[in-house]
Structures
1.
Amino acid sequence: MELDEQSIIEQPVSNTTLIYEGIDYNAYSLIQLACMAESEITGQSIAKFQDAMKLQLIVIKSKLSNQPENNLDKLNALLRCVYDEQGFTGDWKAFFKVKNALLSSVLSRRKGVPISLGFLLIEMLKEVGFDAYGICFPSGFIVKVLLNNESLYIDPFNGQLVGFTELELKVRGQLGNHARLTSDMLQADSNETIIKRYVNVIKAGYIQADNVELALLCSDILLRLDPEDAFEVRDRGFLFQQLDCFQLACNDFTYFIEQCPDDPIVSLLKQQIKSMSDDLVAQVLH
């Protein structure tokens, strides 16, 4: 089932609040939560996505029907099916585009970024019986599979199994040459942590596309989930500033300064507040 990519990205937003403070993250799968977030942001039909996903899962199950035992051979067969035969792949050429973050677009195009591809891969792995989890790894989303009391790690961007040496190289590439892989980095993250990361990725895509209104909606969802996140309040302030909502921006910057007075960006924010306050006075005078 094909989903119209352009309509997914540009259609009006939903009026229904699906992601809210106090939501029971454990009552939903990762892909359900991600689909709910996308539906709230873009208005994309959850039922339409679910139908398309069901078809994809049927294909995967039929391809692996002759491999009932969950072992390394079956895991490799699944990865070949998804990445070689079905053509799912990471999109280097348009890495920061919204179409590579939104699940419905990624399912239709079979191209995406690690977190969106990771959600789809986890769902496929679970459908055929594997225990699969997500990790918000420093360099990008990683999928963890438990197999015979052993943890295996998959880079969902290319479908490759990655060992500790490769994972440490990824860490050093992201955090600096002196950084080292630690056991904490390989722990499965909660649905709450992962969904917040996912909405942040979508927000970044909309910022990159200069779609400030939808970026602001993403920020609203994140603050709904964590109203006291001072850094998200600060980011929302910058979005308000771009929309010439100077009083709202000043309020957000002031809140951040109060919560994080020693942050290096405080002096810049104070300058921004003064500049916007002058603009507000000028607007009133005219």
2.
Amino acid sequence: METMNSRQKQSIETELKIVRTALSLMRKKGYENVGIREICDAAGISTGAFYHHFKSKEDMLNIGFGTYDEYLAEVLETYENPDPLEFLRFVLLNQTEYVMKQTGSLTSELYRALLSSNDKYAIDTFRLYYRTVRKAIELCLKEGKFHASFTADYLTEFLIRVVRGDIIDWCLHEYSYNLMEYVGKDLNVIFAGLCCKTE
């Protein structure tokens, strides 16, 4: 796998710093009440630097999904449960929890930005979240925990789509229920259907 040079790493770190700063401001003041100049001032960068990385505020929010991949990389360093099914459940619920805590009422804005952007980072199959879910599914199939009726590629897309659908439903209901609880229940139903029964 190709490694990033120091300039590429610095560019990603700057992008994530801008996104984290913007999300922090938006959680306090609301999406519409935070402008690019305010984001730049809080992040300690020029507006020129902002536009070097992003075309617009909406484009910046699309990259906001990348903050989870950064967080997931740190989480995976200390995760120890060897059971692939529990690992899969953990990753899907971990992403759900991150959305609830980090974006909360901004989640609908994130998805609106995603829909209006040409670069849809959230559905990039090369991002760490996708690769981690796929790895867990491959292990479940290899160890006979899931029926081999479906491919790892299909199950990866399916499970991520289910969780994404739950998150969007949560937005439509104006964040009025416990998202973690509902995603957990949905995963229980799905896993019960996918899992091989042992005598």
